[in-house]
Amino acid sequence: MDHNEIDNLDFVERYLMGGLMPDEIVRFEEHFVACPRCVEQLRTTEDFMKGIRLAAATQAVPSGWFLSRISVHRLILAGISLLLLICTGIWIGFREMRLRSEANQAKGEMAQLAAHAEEERLASKAAAEESRASEAKLQATIEGLTAQIAARERTIKSLKTDTAMRIAALAEPPPFSLQAEERSVSFNFKPKEIKLKTVRASFQIAFGLEGVTYLREYCVSAFNSSGKEVDEKKCGLTPKGLDVVCPFKSASFRNGFYRFEVEGLKNDGSWQSVGTYPCRIIRTGIRRP
Amino acid sequence: MSIAPVNNDRQLAELVKQAHDGDPRAEEEIIRRHKDGVSIIIGRIVQNSSSTEDISQETFLKVLEKIRCGEVREPERLSGFICSIAKNLAIEHVRKIRKLTSREDGGNAEFIPDPGQDPFTRLLEKERGSVVLRIIGEMSVKRDRDLLMRYFVAEEPKDRICSDLGLTREQFNRVVFRALQRFKELYLKFEGDHRNKN
Ligand SMILES: [Zn+2]
User: Fold this and answer.
1) pLDDT tens digits for A254-269?
2) Which of A248, B91, B142, B174 lies 20 to 30 A from A271 at CA?
3) pTM of the entire predicted model
4) A282 touches chain B (CB under 8 A)
């Protein structure tokens, strides 16, 4: 809507006199609500209309400007005419009173009808707007749910990526080995920390065999803090070097305290304890490619 | 004559965004731009100056709340959104008052009573009448006086008045325009003087 249309089609006056169609009202209101030019024009015209109606109602208009402009001799002529017309005047007066009262009654009824029609129109518009609002609300709910689904899909995707990385990690060789330097027979011994910074499929742990190289074979078992054996016992021939190196499955270990017990097979066929190695396993993260 | 729209849509959308982000200046600007228009829309429905002011405030509270919650789905159409909230609140108010008065008056109430005008409003009303009388008094052509009375009081259609008085629409519009200009000049001066005194 532009001011050409507003001026050419008398939107301001028609709005104030209730002469616009419902769709014209909506369009015009949406325009003028933020238009200082139209607001000013509406205010001026409305004030002027109120003023001129008040002036007409108090009947000050005719007496006010007639008297100031009628010359004296015309006034005398008018007086004579008035005298001649006095009888018919009375009759006209009565008739006018009746017509006026009928006209007022009709006008009142018209005003009531117009008011009812306007109220109905506004009410139906309000209902339409309400239904539009609930539709918008529904749309917002759908959008909210769609956003939630998208977020969940993202989570699933990231979980899938993590899983894929873990699976890939399982296939990789052990990243490091740890020398379990402290040998202990008692669990009070300060445990060695094995930090599994990058959790892969397995990790290696090495045990020194100085002084017990006469053993033909060895076995290493891992126990958790409740004394339950975890993973499988690792057994093998005594290595050529001084260390027994065993691979353990990372998945068998959680954060916590474990102990590794090493036994060796003597020449006479009996088993001898080599040592108990307390450890604390700390899993600090997942390896990213 | 066509002028650029006062609120370009992008500007409005930007204001809504700033208000949503908690900028109080943006909120003030939204109110400043719309408050006069909103009070005309509400005033036309409730026909009562004090209720108009209350409903206008309620309208902006609701609008700002919706903006803060991000519920304005088309920020560039904020003006239309404000209009519909203002109208709904005004209609709701009229219904409430109708129900109330029809209960009190045994179902005969057909109008909403204005709870008494303040002296200043009464003074303005009287002055409006006097200013119009003065303007009519200043008019030298009877046809122009008739035109104003027939158009604004009797609400006769413009085309009929034009054909009765032998005027073109342009001539008609000129008469109305001049009367309104003069009215604005005299009445606004009066209103301004008295507002300053109060
Ligand atoms: Zn405008």
Assistant:
1) 888 888 888 888 888 8
2) A248
3) 0.51
4) no
